[in-house]
Amino acid sequence: SFTNKAAREMQERVRKLLPTRNSQPGTRNREKEDRPTICTFHSLCVRILRNHIEKLGYKRNFVIYDDSDQLSLIREVFKSKDIDEKSIQPRGVLNEISSAKEKLLSPEKYAEKATGFFERICADVYKSYNALLSKANALDFDDILYFCNRLLEQRKDVLEKYQDRFL
């Protein structure tokens, strides 16, 4: 499901359709495992990352930065690089970084494709922005899908675990 509201509604509908089991000792965990997984893509990816993100160099207790946290971090990078917010909008750079992550482009891959002035600035900011996120053991909203994808591409053991569960 795409939204949390839609996922909750679907969970409720499915719960009503599934038969209930008698509560017997030791069955609670099995029941939970047997239930279908109904959630948003982002919440599923967060679950996967909470279990395996250390394989990408992060700690499991990572934090997820919201929009205002992201913008503050971009402004911090701007300040460190003497980029004037009047000439280049932090929101525009953040949108460009978000778009790169949606296309699964690392800072290095994005920099290789950067051709114009704005894209070269974005590439430089993207690299520093990601370094600050990593230092804070933080992900932004786009990183949730980006890092889950990286994890499943790089770690066959993790991929096989979830293929067995969902296929």
Short description:
The chain is mainly alpha-helical.
For the largest beta-sheet, the strand count, sense and barrel status come to:
2 strands, parallel
Rg, please? 20 Å
Strand order of the largest sheet: 1-2
How much of the polypeptide forms β-strand, as a percent range? under 5%
Q: What sort of overall outline do the alpha carbons produce when their principal axes are compared?
A: elongated
- Low-confidence sequence ranges: none
Distance between the termini: 17 Å
Mean pLDDT: 88
Helix and strand element order: HHHEHHHHEHH
The level of helicity is: 55-70%
Labels describing this entry:
single chain; 167 residues; mainly alpha; two-stranded parallel sheet; 66% helix; elongated
Structure description:
Helices cover 66% and strands 4% of the residues. It has 167 residues and is mainly alpha-helical. A two-stranded parallel sheet has the order 1-2. The longest helix is centred in the last third of the chain and has 19 residues, at 117-135. It is elongated, with a radius of gyration of 20 Å. The model has no long low-confidence stretch (mean pLDDT 88).
SSE topology sketch:
Layout: H1 4-17, H2 28-34, H3 41-52, E1 63-65, H4 67-80, H5 90-102, H6 107-113, H7 117-135, E2 138-140, H8 141-154, H9 156-166
Parallel strand pairs: 1-2
Helix pairs in contact: 3-8, 4-5, 4-7, 5-7, 6-7, 8-9
